[in-house]
Design goal:
Blueprint lengths: L1 H33 L3 H17 L1 H10 L2 H20 L4 H14 L5 H10 L5 H18 L2 H9 L2 H22 L12 H13 L2 H6 L8
Helix pairs in contact: 1-2, 1-6, 1-7, 1-9, 2-5, 4-5, 4-6, 4-9, 6-7
């Protein structure tokens, strides 16, 4: 059962890091084709991180209510859609849309895995399996360097993202079909109440309170 559980989640997490850093390699191609400046390239790359981060709080609520395999498999379909849109983009808007969907799509790759491991594996195996899961992210970073450059030597960046879209579909199918089921104990708290609680706690975070606009006191 361990391999059936680990391999699908590890593959998804590998892809999430590949998506994260691959823009560094294809940036010259994007500049040449779309005439992007440094700020626009940075925006295309960072929108992935923005949508990824915005998904983390809702993701926690979803993982409390549904099986990890369902959440991760559904979101990976969005990653596949985003990669396909990115591959077919004809403007910076298309690049931003595709990259943003990818960030949403891979947002569950780590936490869904950790949640499934905690529900399905003995406690003594968790440190090893969690460590191996994190290691696969590093492999994704490695794959985004020389292997991607080799791929681009005979293909282009659009073909690369089409291949990554298909890989995301495969990851979604593997997670949904191979990962064992487990019973989710749903809390009695209503979803609306959970959202209110999360929003309240979010607003109490010091870093976000600093960002809020405060009216200037009148003399």
């Amino acid at each position: 059962m361990l391999l059936k559980l680990f391999i699908p989640f590890a593959f998804g997490y590998f892809l999430s890091f590949l998506y994260r850093v691959v823009n560094v390699v294809i940036a010259p191609d994007l500049v040449a084709e779309f005439g992007l400046n440094a700020a626009q390239i940075g925006m295309v790359s960072s929108v992935y991180l923005l949508t990824f981060a915005l998904c983390q709080l809702p993701l926690g609520i979803l993982l409390d209510r549904y099986e990890s395999r369902k959440v991760s498999a559904a979101l990976l379909l969005l990653a596949a859609l985003g990669a396909w849109i990115f591959a077919g983009a004809s403007s910076i808007e298309g690049l931003l849309l595709g990259r943003g969907l990818i960030g949403i799509g891979v947002s569950a790759c780590l936490m869904a895995a950790f949640t499934a491991y905690a529900n399905l594996l003995p406690l003594q195996k968790l440190p090893l399996v969690n460590g191996l899961q994190l290691m696969t992210g590093g492999l994704g970073v490695v794959a985004a360097s020389t292997p991607v450059q080799w791929f681009l030597s005979w293909g282009d960046w659009r073909l690369l993202f089409q291949a990554m879209a298909l890989a995301s579909l495969l990851a979604s199918a593997l997670v949904l079909t191979l990962v064992p089921r487990y019973v989710v104990v749903v809390k009695q708290q209503k979803l609306s109440q959970q959202l209110k609680t999360v929003s309240y706690r979010l607003l109490q975070m010091p870093n976000l309170r600093v960002l809020s606009v405060q009216p200037k006191p009148r003399p």
